[in-house]
Specification:
The protein is an alpha+beta fold and 396 residues long. It has helices at 3-26, 31-34, 37-47, 55-62, 64-77, 104-122, 139-157, 177-187, 191-202, 214-223, 225-234, 254-271, 310-328, 334-348, 354-367, 389-395; strands spanning 85-92, 95-102, 162-167, 239-243, 246-251, 281-284, 289-291, 294-298, 304-308. The protein is globular and about 65 Å long.
Length: 396
C-alpha cells in the first residue's frame, strides 16, 4: 500500500467515525425523543434529590405521574409556558446576589431540555478545560487542572513565569440574548426545541440570564466558548483554565500574556462581555497567586502548595462563636454545629492547611468543652498548638 492509499484510507475511517457520531447526536435534536414521558419522569426523580423537605416538592411527588403527564401533553401541544420565578436575595461572601429560582414543574422541563438536548449538543464544542456545571467537572476539577499546569510549567521553567488572571463583571446580567439565540440555532435545528428554549431565555427580560435556572448555566458556559478557543487555538496557550467567569492563563513570557490580554479584551467586547479590570492582572508565579479562593505557590523544589485564603478560616471561626450563642439560646442543636464543622473540615482538607484545621479544631473544643468526652468528637482532637485556643478566640 502506497502512502497515498494510506492517507485515503485514514480519511475514510475518520469520515466514517464522524458519520457515526452525527447519527448518535441526531436524536438529541428530536423534540419527541427529548420530551418523552420516560425522560420527563426520570428528570422529575432527579429534581427531587436533596429537596424532598420542600412543601412544593412534596405536593408534586404526591401526584407525580399525573403532573408529569399534564406537562407532557402541554409540551407536545405547544401550549407549555413558564409560570415565573420565586425571587429572593442571598449574601454570598459579602456580595448580594439576586436569585430567580424556577418552580418544580418548570425545573423538570428545564432539566429534561438540558440533559437530553442542550448539554450533549452545545458541549461538543467546549474545550476540556471549561470546568464548571458539567458532569465530572466542577470546582475541584478546575483547581486540580491549574495544579497540574503549574507542575508541568515548573519542570521546564522552574519558578520563572507569569499568570494572567481575568474575571467577568456581572457575567450573568450582561449575557446577550442575541448571542444565546445564535448559538442555539447553530447547534439545534428542531423549531419546537428552539422556540421552547428561547421562551425560557426571554423570561429573564431583554438582556442577561438569571441565577437559579439550569438553562442559564449551560448558556453561561456556551457564550464564552469562542473566547476559550481563541486562547487555546489561536493564541496557543496550553495552560489555560476557565471556571464560569474566572480564567487563568500560565506562560513563561510576560509580553505574550500582555498581547493575549489585548486580544481577550477585543473578543470580550465583541461578545458583549465586560471584563473586571480590578481583578484582571498579570502576576509573577514566584510570588504566588490567588484563584478560586485558593493560593497557589511554586516552591524551589518544584512542589505546588495550595493554601486556603485566610478569610475562609476567619469566617468559620466566627460562625462557631455565633453557633455557641444560638445553642445557648436554644435556637440551634449541637448536631448541626458538628455537621457544619465537619463539612468545612472536609473542604479544607483538600488544601495544604494542616495548621488552620488544627487551630480551628482547638477553637471548637474550647467553645464546646461539654463534648470532649463524646466518641464522635474524639477524631477532632489534635496535638497542642503553639497558640492557645483562648488566644485564637480572643483574636477574632
Amino acid at each position: 500500500m502506497t502512502s497515498e492509499e494510506r492517507r485515503e484510507a485514514r480519511y475514510w475511517r475518520r469520515r466514517a467515525k464522524r458519520e457515526v457520531k452525527r447519527e448518535q447526536h441526531a436524536r438529541y435534536d428530536d423534540f419527541d425523543w427529548v420530551f418523552s414521558y420516560t425522560h420527563l419522569y426520570k428528570c422529575f426523580k432527579k429534581c427531587c434529590r436533596n429537596v424532598g423537605w420542600k412543601s412544593s416538592t412534596q405536593r408534586y411527588k404526591s401526584l407525580a405521574p399525573l403532573y408529569v403527564y399534564r406537562t407532557y401533553k402541554k409540551l407536545h401541544k405547544g401550549t407549555y409556558r413558564s409560570k415565573g420565578f420565586f425571587e429572593f436575595n442571598i449574601i454570598e461572601r459579602g456580595k448580594k446576589r439576586h436569585i430567580r429560582s424556577v418552580i418544580i414543574d418548570e425545573r423538570v422541563v428545564q432539566r429534561c431540555l438540558c440533559d437530553y438536548c442542550l448539554i450533549p449538543l452545545l458541549s461538543r464544542s467546549f474545550i476540556y478545560d471549561n470546568g464548571a456545571s458539567l458532569k465530572g467537572k466542577g470546582y475541584h476539577f478546575a483547581r486540580k487542572r491549574v495544579t497540574s499546569f503549574l507542575q508541568k510549567h515548573s519542570r521546564k521553567h522552574g519558578r520563572e513565569g507569569y499568570a494572567l488572571l481575568f474575571d467577568f463583571s456581572k457575567y450573568f446580567d450582561n449575557i446577550s440574548h442575541e448571542l444565546c439565540e445564535r448559538i442555539l440555532r447553530k447547534y439545534v435545528a428542531d423549531p419546537r426545541i428552539v422556540r421552547l428554549t428561547e421562551h425560557f431565555i426571554g423570561m429573564f427580560g431583554d438582556k442577561g440570564l438569571g441565577l437559579g435556572s439550569q438553562v442559564s448555566q449551560i448558556f453561561a458556559l456556551a457564550t464564552a466558548d469562542e473566547l476559550d478557543h481563541l486562547i487555546k487555538d489561536t493564541l496557543g496557550i496550553k495552560f489555560y483554565e476557565r471556571y464560569m467567569d474566572d480564567g487563568c492563563l500560565i506562560h513563561e513570557r510576560k509580553e505574550h500574556l500582555q498581547a493575549c490580554l489585548k486580544r481577550i479584551r477585543q473578543k470580550c467586547k465583541a461578545l458583549g462581555i465586560i471584563l473586571n479590570e480590578k481583578k484582571t492582572i498579570i502576576v509573577k508565579l514566584s510570588r504566588g497567586f490567588t484563584w478560586l479562593k485558593t493560593k497557589f505557590y511554586i516552591l524551589g523544589s518544584g512542589r505546588i502548595l495550595r493554601k486556603i485564603v485566610r478569610e475562609s478560616v476567619v469566617k468559620m471561626r466566627r460562625k462557631l462563636l455565633a453557633f455557641r450563642k444560638m445553642v445557648n439560646e436554644g435556637r440551634m442543636v449541637i448536631a448541626d454545629v458538628y455537621m457544619s464543622f465537619q463539612s468545612w473540615r472536609a473542604y479544607v482538607r483538600c488544601f495544604n492547611a494542616h495548621r488552620s484545621i488544627r487551630l480551628t479544631t482547638d477553637c471548637l473544643l474550647y467553645l464546646y468543652p461539654e463534648f470532649k468526652g463524646d466518641s464522635k468528637w474524639q477524631q477532632l482532637k489534635t496535638k497542642p498548638c503553639s497558640r492557645s485556643s483562648s488566644q485564637t478566640v480572643a483574636a477574632l
